[in-house]
Each structure stands twice: as C-alpha cells, then as structure tokens.
Amino acid sequence: MQAWQVHEIGEPSEVMRLEEVERPVPGEGQVLLKVRAANINFPDALMCRGQYQVRPPLPFTPGVEICGETEDGRRVIANPALPYGGFAEYAVADARGLLPAPDALDDAETAALHIGYQTGWFGLHQRARLQDGETLLVHAAAGGVGSAAVQLGKAAGARVIGVVGGPAKAKVAAELGCDVVIDRRSEDVIAAVKEATGGRGADVIYDPVGGEAYTQSAKTVAFEGRIVVVGFASGTIPSPALNHALVKNYSIMGLHWGLYASKNPKLIPHCHERLTELAASGAIKPLVSERVDLTDAAAAVQRVADGVTTGRVAVIPGLAAAKEGAAA
C-alpha cells in the first residue's frame, strides 16, 4: 500500500515521503481499516517537527483522525494507532475506540468531526459550562478547531464573537455564523470586544492560539468569565498573571481532550452521540475547505502548519483517480 513516512524530524513538506510499504498488521484489540478520508490536524505538523507530546518511533505515518471502513463495510471514526497513522491507504486502530460515522456527513466531514468537535464540546460544555445567551469569544474562528467551537457555541444559544487574521478568514467566520467578526490584523481586538459587549467582556473565551491571543483574552474576559486554553498554535505558551485572575474574578481552564480516554472514557461516546444529533439536525457541519488526494498530503500538512488554511483539509486516498474516472 501507499503511505507517507517520516524518517527524520523537520518541516512536513521536507520530511514526509510517499512510499510503498506493507499493510500494517493489527495487534491484540486492534482492527485494520481502509482509510476513506483522513483529516489534517495541527498535531500532525508538530509530530513531524518533533514538537508534539506524542513522539512515535521513526519512521512513522502521521494522521491522527480518519473516517475508515471496517472489513465488514462499516464506516467508522477512528484515531489510528501510531506509528500507523491515517495518511495511508490502510491504518490500524483500537477496536474499542471506534465510533459510528454519522449518516448526515460524508467521509471528509466525518473525519473532521472527531478531535476538533470533541475538544470543542468538552471545552465549552464539560469545562466552561457555556449557557444559552452568554457571549463566547473564539480565537482563530475560521480554523479547524475554531470553526468547530463557533458552530457548537451557536448550537448552544451563545452570541459568538470570532477573531480571525485577514479578510478572507473574516468572510469564512461570518459564514460560519459569528455574530461579530474581528480581524486582528486591521482592528484592535481588545477595543472591538469591549465595544461589542458594551464593556462587559466575553463570558467564555476559547483559545487554541496562545501568545498574544491569551493576553487579549485576559483583558476581555467578563466578571466570572472562563478562559478555556486548548492549544498554542502561535508557538508561544503564555504565562498567566494569577493576580490578574484574582483581582478580575475569572477562571483559567485547561482542556486536554486526550485525557478523557483514560480518566473518564464513558464521556467520549456520550459526546459523540450529542455531536451526531447536532449533525443530523444541521446545527453543525464540519467546514472542509479542501479535499486532496493522498499524493498531495505533505503539501497540505505544510499549509496547515503555516496557518494559511481555513476549516479542515481532508486527505482522500484515490481522489485523483476518482476525478479522472468521473471526467472520462
């Protein structure tokens, strides 16, 4: 089969190589899955760079979330068991971690439903307890993680403010349903949030960016507000001033979705049921901005790493051949 392999640490476009390899053999409790679509996540790029908390042995195949097909033809959502990741024609995954693919979503949308949306659901509901009528501020609102939080916030009845970088991403955020869109490149984020909230600030702030975005969060969070820290896409891990949190009376919450698999695994299928219901009703629909063939995966991972994409980019093995067949 074809699979992208990383033999050395570096930039995705430089270290990912498409190779012919043997199909992986499932271990005890694992299943072999045909990859129907693999969603690109920022951690895929971090793993190539050797900067992620999970460091699979070299060589490894990136790709941490897929829509796969079981041997009996069922569509499922899975997190591949590294080093046999999803940017390949076949992957392996733990059988007990498989989730049914929602009928309302196609393969690419299904692949994009898992990590970003589960992170959003756990962050907004399990951690921050977002309430109907509250104001939610989402940083990087047009990105894969942010776009999921925007949709989930709207589905929960929140007023959503989206912060983005550039007019193209501002257009995407507005189409996603943001009530207010702030372009951090041309606007003063702090002043714009205060204006949009009548000086009160946001009740919940969802931050996958860190760095300057966190500084803005601390200055725009409302009384008894909650800042949910879900990542550091900026590359800068902030050092919160806890005296500020004390004086202003707000909470700083960390969210590591992966911990629930070991600490409270029953919540993951429960969350998936809620997401499936929301997808069936049309309240959420993963924004898949690009669908690329397996042969183009390395370049696509690099684009995600460079922060120039919106929504999700999905890798679909056989896409180029399918397009050629349709054209013929």
Q: What's the helix and strand layout?
A:
Layout (H helix, E strand, L loop, with lengths): L1 E5 L5 H4 E5 L9 E10 L2 H8 L15 E5 L5 E4 L11 E5 L4 E2 L6 H5 L3 H13 L7 E5 L4 H12 L3 E6 L2 H10 L3 E4 L5 H8 L5 E6 L4 H9 E9 L12 H7 L2 E4 L5 H4 L3 H15 L6 E6 L3 H9 L6 E5 L2 H9 L1
Parallel strand pairs: 8-9, 8-11, 9-10, 11-12, 12-13, 14-15
Antiparallel strand pairs: 1-2, 3-4, 3-6, 3-15, 4-5, 5-7
Helix pairs in contact: 2-12, 4-5, 4-11, 7-8
List keywords for this structure.
alpha/beta, 25% strand, 34% helix, 328 residues, single chain, globular
Describe this entry's structure for a reader.
The chain is an alpha/beta fold. The chain is built from 13 helices and 15 strands. The chain has helices at residues 12-15, 42-49, 107-111, 115-127, 144-155, 167-176, 189-196, 212-220, 242-248, 260-263, 267-281, 297-305, 319-327, and strands spanning 2-6, 16-20, 30-39, 65-69, 75-78, 90-94, 99-100, 135-139, 159-164, 180-183, 202-207, 221-229, 251-254, 288-293, 312-316. Strands 3, 4, 5, 6, 7, 14 and 15 form a seven-stranded mixed β-sheet that branches. It has a six-stranded parallel β-sheet with strand order 10-9-8-11-12-13, sandwiched between helices. A two-stranded antiparallel ribbon has the order 1-2. Helix 12 (297-305) links the parallel strand 14 and strand 15. The mean pLDDT is 95.
Mean pLDDT: 95
- Computed over alpha carbons, the radius of gyration is 20 Å
Percent of residues in helices: 25-40%
Structural class computed from helices and strand pairing: alpha/beta
State the order of secondary-structure elements, H for helix, E for strand: EHEEHEEEEHHEHEHEHEHEHEHHEHEH
Major β-sheet, in short?
A: 7 strands, mixed
Coarse morphology: globular
Q: Please report the distance between the alpha carbons of the first and last residues.
A: 25 Å
Beta-strand fraction estimate:
15-25%
Poorly predicted sequence stretches spanning 5 or more consecutive residues: none
Number of strands: 15
Number of helices: 13
